[in-house]
Structure formats: structure tokens, C-alpha cells
Description:
It comes from Paraflavitalea soli. By secondary structure, this protein is of the alpha+beta class. Helix content is 60%, strand content 12%.
Amino acid sequence: xxxxxxxxxxxxxxxxxxxxxxxxxxxxxxxxxxxxxxxxxxxxxxxxxxxxxxxxxxxxxxxxxxxxxxxxxxxxxxxxxxxxxxxxxxxxxxxxxxxxxxxxxxxxxxxxxxxxxxxxxxxxxxxxxxxxxxxxxxxxxxxxxxxxxxxxxxxxxxxxxxxxxxxxxxxxxxxxxxxxxxxxxxxxxxxxxxxxxxxxxxxxxxxxxxxxxxxxxxxxxxxxxxxxxxxxxxxxxxxxxxxxxxxxxxxxxxxxxxxxxxxxxxxxxxxxxxxxxxxxxxxxxxxxxxxxxxxxxxxxxxxxxxxxxxxxxxxxxxxxxxxxxxxxxxxxxxxxxxxxxxxxxxxxxxxxxxxxxxxxxxxxxxxxxxxxx
Length: 373
């Protein structure tokens, strides 16, 4: 195996998300994990990866990668990935994916196998994901030892181990051209974040076939296909489900697929199953409200958008949907009360959208008066 090629591959290990003596891991307390959660949420929503990168314990993650790979992984491949992790690549990629308006919010905290866990919701550009952070303590510092990423349906350590093991077993069999094309992996991720999906697809097609057969790369293509039109997106999601019908991320993935196929009952079931997996996130009432809106069930649409607003009054997309629901029902007084509530993020709704609402509902603008500005 050529060392240079193995290091090139390490960039993949971060696009989706020598073991020596390490400090012993200890459980963090509930209060310590809660303090870390507040720090991470504040930092990430200010679009700074500093706290996340500082909290990620690379040595603990590396240990879990080797364990997940049954100690069969070429350590040079893992070392290359760890070098990038130490430089803050993972946290920076999350910030890049959040963009200017995305949010990273704590959903719940729980304990499993004596370790505290923090579940964060990542929502950006109408795309949903969850990160379940395993929290430990080392050298009296509270750290993140692994991350279960809902979009991939597995721990980050398992994803990295699977990929590193694949390269350990197959890199020597790749042609020189295929090895050179490993350079494209990081570029593909950049193009996805830049919403240059056609260019990303072209580079993806050039990747070695052995890689594109894996779960990791099929998931990457689903992300690319999301920007290539409904038909290609639906095909990519359906193909993924056929390959991995029992994957933990199928519920999250198939919400869009069922909506595109107008299978709204199945879409609702997928939302509810995802909610059960997380063990309740009030944000998912947003998806329920949208699905009932598509079916024309105005009573259920109203029920879920009001429930969402009661739990998350600062969520501007939810405010917009509830506002339109009230206005369509000619409940102008309720619409005015909604947007003038101090907890409302109405002014964060795009100005052009607000002007469209005023033109469609002039009585609403009239009652708002100065608050319409």
C-alpha cells in the first residue's frame, strides 16, 4: 500500500462524518454534560466550531475506530484521518453545512452505559439531521468520544472504520488513475456544500466502483441527488433503502421519498418512527403540519403548527406556516397576535416573503400597522 494514497483517502473519512497509552475514560456527570451542551449550542449557533473541536477527543475516537475494525485497519489510514480531525476539520464542516441561517440545538440529554449523551438537531436549508454525542471525562475535561450521526445511521467511529477497512483491503488493487481520483472526494463534499450538484455528480461517477458500492458512498450520492431533481433524488433514496432496509437512518431518509411519491400516510409513519427513535422532538410537528397541509387536512395542519409554536415560538419557518394557516382561515386577529408576540421571530422571515403576505392579505397588514415595517 502506498502511504500517499492512504492519506488521500483520509479526506473521505471527514466528509461525511498508532494506538498508544491513553488517559483512562471516566463518566461525566449529568451537570457536566449539560454545561458542555450549553457551550456547544452557543458556539455552533454563532457559527464557531471552536468549542466542538476542542471537545472532540481524537484519541478516544481513534480507539473506537480500531475496535470497530477488529484491529485489522492499516494505522496509516487512520492516522491520516486523525491528523485532519486534530486540525478541526469535522467541526468546520458542520459549520459550513449550517450556512448563515442553520441551527444546532439540543433536543435531549440521557444516560446510556453509564455515559451521558447529548442529542443535537441540525437544521439547515430545509435539511434535517441529528447528532448523538457520547460524553466522557478525561484529565478532568469533559469530552466527546464518538458521534452517532442519524443521516448515516451509525456512529462516526463505525463509518470511519468501515471506510478505513475497505481501503486497507482494496487500495493495492486500485489502478493509478483510481488512486489519483481519490483526490476528488474532498472536492465532492465542497461542491455539495456549494450546491454545485451537477459538478459533484460528475466527479462522483469517476470514483472507483468498489467505493460506490459501500453504504458511505451511497449516502453521499443521496446528498448529491437531492439537488438533481425529484426523479434522481427519489431513485437514489429508493436504491439506498433496497440496499440497507434495516438501517437506522431509513426513517429520516424516507420522509422526503414518501412525500415525493405522495404517500403521505407512509411519510407520517416515518416521521413518527423517527420521533420514537429520538424519543420525542417537538420540532417534528413542523413536518407533520406540512404533510397534513399537503393532504388538505386543515384541522390537523393547525393542530401541529400550533403545537410547534407552543414549543418553539422562535422558529421562524414554523411561525410562517402557522401565520398562513390563520390567514387562510380568516383568523386575522390570531395572525396579528402571533407575529406581535415578543417570542416570535417573525421579522426573521425573509422581507420579500412578508411583502408577498401583505399583498395577499391586506387586512392583515392594515391591522399590523407600524408592526408591518
